[in-house]
Design brief:
Distance between the termini: 26 Å
Strand content: 25-35%
Number of helices: 13
CATH topology of the largest domain: Glutamine Phosphoribosylpyrophosphate, subunit 1, domain 1
Shape: globular
CATH class of the largest domain: Alpha Beta
Strand order of the largest sheet: 3-2-4-1-10-9-11-14
CATH superfamily of the largest domain: Aminohydrolase, N-terminal nucleophile (Ntn) domain
Mean pLDDT: 91
Bound molecules: glutamic acid
Length: 409
């Protein structure tokens, strides 16, 4: 989950994109970046942390151009850092992406074998390289993007620029949200309405498998496969606050209804259906170590603790290993029985829950192996744990955890 913004028109792109990113910050903000095309040259600025850091960087090192793309990131693959911040560039191709590319590992291996060098740890960078590869194989920008997108599995909303076709911006989506704003000889692309609501109220909602090509400030719609499309715009009369909540009465309700997406994003790329296996990329526990486990302690607080109770049922059912579920504060203040055959699973949405962090250190000191289940990449618990399984639920705005139980309305 994150925010993307694209602009093509007659005005300077950077202030418009920056303003759009600010209004999308609620979707995630561990790093941010902007790229504009200036006389066919891609100028990119990226920075770690909140958007203000990018703003300060741009004040010191401004970029120019009337076509550009921007991104505020909520990391799913690769820690929050400047190098992992979007946009990502390969040759003349520059990409911002919201979503998860499930087959990125396989694509990255194939691209490496074809002498592509990767700079980041993200899944996104494969998109830039794949488009570049298709360009080199002799396609134009549009064809290269269509071919590259055809090879991706997973979810994406992308906005792509190319130095060799500086008047063109391409946007496409599959599984991640995207809206297009129609202005007066200017066009906007965004993950969500609030980003562009101050510029236009005429919006086109993109559906999965659809693509918009803005060439010399005219949009043309088609499917990713190439079939032409006619899209109608809608007039949006929401207030900016209503728009942020996606039309729901409050964020809590919005997040309840986002649960199916959060679950499918979390499973994405990890369930190897054909092999009948599961792949957890940062578990960091070899098979041999896992086989030695004789006891599992799930440690958490609040709603995460309740989730742990369900975990106990599932683990005992499928692994036939005894599982205890502990409230972190109680675990850390008693004299828990832990040894090197104990696996400690810590659950914390934020990865910052103080008692859970302290319990993890306690368990570690007694020789237990630990794996954290967290939603925030590079959070304290995620950094200190031996292994981590990230949920990809996106940033939490409605903090009360009641939303994790089934809504009764
Ligand atoms: N998967 C991409 C990344 O980790 C995009 C995440 C997002 O949607 O912010 O960089």
């Amino acid at each position: 989950m994150c925010g993307i913004v694209g602009y093509t028109g007659r005005q300077e792109a950077t202030p418009i994109i920056l303003d759009g990113l600010k209004r999308l910050e609620y979707r995630g903000y561990d790093s941010a970046g902007i790229c504009t095309l200036n006389n066919g040259h891609a100028e990119t600025r990226r920075s770690e942390g909140k958007l203000i850091n990018l703003e300060n960087l741009l004040a010191k090192e401004p970029i120019a151009g009337a076509i550009g793309i921007g991104h505020t990131r909520w990391a799913t693959h690769g820690r929050p850092s400047e190098i992992n911040a979007h946009p990502h560039q390969a040759g003349p191709v520059v990409v911002v992406h919201n979503g998860i590319i499930e087959n990125y590992l396989q694509l990255r291996e194939e691209l490496r074998a074809a002498h592509h060098t990767f700079k980041s740890e993200t899944d996104t960078e494969v998109i830039a390289h794949l488009v570049e590869k298709k360009l080199r194989e002799g396609g134009d920008f549009e064809k290269a993007v269509r071919q590259a997108l055809g090879e991706l599995r997973g979810a994406y909303a992308v906005c792509i620029l190319c130095e060799t076709e500086p008047g063109t911006m391409i946007a496409a989506k599959q599984g991640s949200p995207m809206v297009i704003g129609l202005g007066d000889e200017e066009f906007f692309v965004a993950s969500d309405i609030p980003a562009i609501l101050s510029h236009t109220r005429e919006m086109i909602f993109m559906e999965d498998g659809e693509m918009a090509i803005f060439r010399n400030n005219k949009p043309v719609f088609s499917t990713v496969a190439g079939a032409p499309l006619t899209k109608n715009s809608r007039h949006i009369d929401w207030s900016p606050l209503m728009a942020e909540k996606g039309g729901y009465k409050h964020f809590m309700l919005k997040e309840i209804f986002e649960q199916p997406r959060a679950i499918s994003d979390t499973i994405a790329g990890r369930l190897l259906e054909e092999e009948g296996d599961v792949y957890l990329e940062s578990l960091s526990l070899p098979d041999g170590e896992l086989k030695k486990v004789e006891r599992i302690c799930i440690i958490a607080c609040g709603t995460s603790w309740h989730a742990g109770l369900v975990g106990k049922f599932l683990l005992e059912e499928h692994c036939r290993i005894p599982v205890e579920v502990d409230i972190a504060s109680e675990f850390r203040y008693r004299n828990p029985v832990v040894n090197d055959r104990t696996l400690i699973i810590l659950i914390s949405q934020s990865g910052e829950t103080a008692d859970t962090l302290a319990a993890m250190r306690e368990g570690k000191a007694r020789g237990g192996k630990n794996v954290a289940i967290c939603n925030v990449v590079d959070s304290s618990i995620a950094r200190e744990a031996d292994g981590v399984v990230y949920t990809h639920a996106g940033p939490e705005i409605g903090v009360a955890s009641t939303k994790h139980s089934s809504p009764s309305w």
